[in-house]
Amino acid sequence: MSVPEIIETAVSAPYWQALAAGRLDFQYCRACGHGWLPARAQCPACLSDDSEWRPASGRGRIVSWVVYHKAYAPHLAERVPYNVAVVELVEGPRLMTNIVDRPDGQGLAVDAPLELVIETDFGRALPRFRLVEA
To answer: What is the pTM of this model?
Structure first.
């Protein structure tokens, strides 16, 4: 089975290294204070190239999600149903990920609180999230 290759670059290497070490890092602009994911050479808000990597708290919220009942890629066929979610970290950056404890989407809601779970999948540490129960 063919799995899409993650291409690590000089810009994205700190992100992947942090995940392998058990934490989620995001880029932070020293010029304007904007934080972002995914990695890029310049701040998407002000285009400055003066940035640093900061650790995320691991807390976030659901912005949106979808549940797939059909695999649109062969390597996902055995995972149906599965969700893909947009998560906003409390620090501001957003990322696309999965909610691990609810693959069928049951109980997911906009603004539901989440916590980070780093899972190894296809040989790579990936940021995923689970619901925080009240």
So the answer is: 0.91
